[in-house]
Every structure is written in C-alpha cells, then in structure tokens.
C-alpha cells in the first residue's frame, strides 16, 4: 500500500478550492475532497440519530456538473445524503445551507477565467470553512486519499442523492427581508456578466420564480449563462468590466445600474450618471438601514457593524453617530464572517463589495445589498447620485498595486519616512493587516494602508483624505517610496 500524500496546496488555499480543469483540478480530486469533507465536517456535525446531509450546487461553468457528481460520490460513499440544488449563486447555496442547517459546497471559480473551477465549502448554517476552520484538514486528508496513504471512510449504507430546486425559496426569503413593493417605480440596468445573476435576478427582482411583480423595470445585460464569459470578465472590481453597464445606464435613462460577479455574491452599484458608487458608500448606506431597523426593535441595543480596515472612514463616522458600534477587521471574508458571528453583528461590509447580514446566516449576499439600495433609492425622490453624496465625503485613491522585487525593503522605506522619523507629524500606527498609518485626528486628515500580497511580490496601497490634494500628495509620496530602487541593491 502506498504511503504517499498528494500535495493539494496549489489549489486549496486559505478560503476555498480553485484550479484549472483538468490540469490541476479534476473529477478524481473532487471525489477525494468530497470524501474528506464528509469526514472532517459533515459526519461530525450530524445530529445523533439523524442522517448526515449536505447540499451541493454549481454555477454556469461547463465543468460544474461533472465535478459535482464526483464530489457527491465521495460524500455518498461515506454515508452522507446529498441534496443537489443544481444551478445556483453562491449566496443561493448559503441560503440552502442556512435554511436547512446542513453543510454545503458551492462549485464556482467566481470571476476567474473559463478554464477554472473550484469549491467554496461551508458548515451547517452557512458557517465558513477556511484555513483555520477545517479547510487545511480537508486538504491534507484528500491528499492522503489520493496518494493512497489513507483510505476514505466507506459506509455500510451509502448515502442517497436527490435533486431539488431552491430558487423560489431563496427569492422568497430575500423578499421577506426587504420589502420593495411600496417603492416608487425604478428603471435598473443589471449586468450579470453571463454569470449567475442572470439566473437569480429574474427570480428575485422579477416574477420568474412565481413571485409578484415589483415596481422595477429591469433592463438585462448579458443574462445568458455562459461560463466562457464572451462579453467581459465577470469581475466588476476591474473598471473596464463596468463600462458596458455605465453606458447602458445613461443610454436607457435608468435610475441605477447593478453589476454582479460570476457567482453573484458581490454587487457593484452605478448611479444614474453612469458613475460608480463606492462599496464603502454602500456599506454606510446599508449599514445605517440595518442599524435603524435593529434600534427600532429595541432602542436599548447597540447594534454592531463590521468593516475591514481599508473601508472609508465614513463608515465608522456615520454608523457611530447613528448609535452603532463598529468593529474593524483584517481584509478577507473569513475574518469578517468570524467577527460577524463573534460580535452578533447586524451587518458587515468590505471594499470588494462583499456584504454580510446577520439575517442571512452571517453570510455574504450581493443580492440582498442590491435590494437595500433599491429600497433606499425608491423610498425617497432624489437621484442616486444625490443620495450617495452623503456617504462619500472623503477622497480615496482606490487600491493601487506596486510590483517590487524586495517587498520588505520597500515597506521599510515607508516605515522609516512615516513612522521612525514621523516627518508627517503625530500619527497613529497599527499592523492589524499590513501597515496602517493614520493622521486622521490631526489636520490635514489622511490615512493609508500598505499590505503585501499573499501570493505575489506586490504591495497594495489604499489612501484616503478629507481633501483631494492631500490624498494625491500622500498617495504619490508613498508610491515614490515603495517604487524607489533599494539603495542597498
């Protein structure tokens, strides 16, 4: 018997599984991961006397069904009943996991190119499975199965495989959280990027799932499900992928535009002028709505809102003034989700347009965030640009990447200039995630965060200031330090 262990660290990272099919990720690997997921997560979480069960779904990529079948075979061989919900968005899978309180697996590579696929795993109740919450164990055990160092658990009675559609339940659940029936009529252009938004938007915002029509005139853009992404990448974080939506909003005289990524768990917003509304502004807008709702239920409560450390200062400013307690976290959904559950937070937001809701099992859902934006806009007469102004009072650089051969040396130059010498005056420094230097308590107000990439020789810079000229100066000064040649080289 072999005692080899296959190294899966190239495709199983901190948060999920991601690889090129079939070069680095194929059905054999998917089955091994399914068997390991059964052992590490599903079987231990099954209630005594009940059948261990998991729910599995996939996005529009052509390789999804074959990989799902293999993964399900690994689960059923271990005695797990598998409920296959077929095509779904990632938040649709989270809803199925949360509503039925069973572990789940979503086959998607999100915004990655067509040749990729992957898996996002969750425990029952849609709780995340990440590097420190079971994914490392799944990786190592699957590698042992593949190499022959260990044999998968084989149940005396294999599990069953059933198919079930949950789209209507998902749509109804979201509609129960935000009531759009009484808003003023709105025209909204939606760019699904040939991803799963083309499947979920007609169900949630339209009547495709049998629900009543809403006062929304939805103009569809790239709703055809196509994992080859023939029109543009399904990654709205890149400005070039928003251009078609921006043009369509203006062309149709729409009130707003919405852009979803490939698995439709992120949502970006465009105002009526065709201008992007920053995810920080959306975090503030939705956060204020959730805080107000929480306090209306019990004004003695202090609602908690989570935000990552490169979110605009407008988020803690406005939410703190509204009576909430804000908690700052590292960048990354596993950190946000952990803090959401630990703090019993009502809402959480990230600069990458991931939005998390306590009412949605502490998980992220772009669709629910979009519904809040529609409600906020439709409950008052002003255009979205005017509404968003109050949530965007500061000036931000956006995230700027700098490739450097010596990341520590580049970072050291910034530390020397801004921390050791304190030439910029009194600053507050922390290293929660990279280097954050803040001059916010003094005039002029500014802060920046400099973080190293986990996978590439890159430094990522975010700058914000109360004055645009100051933002530009700090941005350019820090970039000059980062990109300067190392004098010792």
From TrEMBL:
Superkingdom of source: Bacteria
MF GO annotations: intramolecular phosphotransferase activity; metal ion binding
Domain Alpha-D-phosphohexomutase C-terminal as annotated: residue spans: 399-479
Q: Which GO terms describe its biological process?
A: carbohydrate metabolic process
Could you tell me which InterPro entries the record lists for this protein? Answer: A-D-PHexomutase_a/b/a-I, A-D-PHexomutase_a/b/a-I/II/III, A-D-PHexomutase_a/b/a-II, A-D-PHexomutase_a/b/a-III, A-D-PHexomutase_C, A-D-PHexomutase_C_sf, Alpha-D-phosphohexomutase_SF
Alphabetically list the UniProt keywords: Isomerase, Magnesium, Metal-binding, Phosphoprotein
- Domain named Alpha-D-phosphohexomutase alpha/beta/alpha is located at 12-132, 169-274, 302-394
- Cofactors: Mg(2+)
Per the similarity annotation, which family is this?
Belongs to the phosphohexose mutase family.
Name the chain's protein. Phosphomannomutase
Annotated organism of origin: Flavimobilis marinus
The major lineage groups are: Bacteria, Bacillati, Actinomycetota, Actinomycetes, Micrococcales
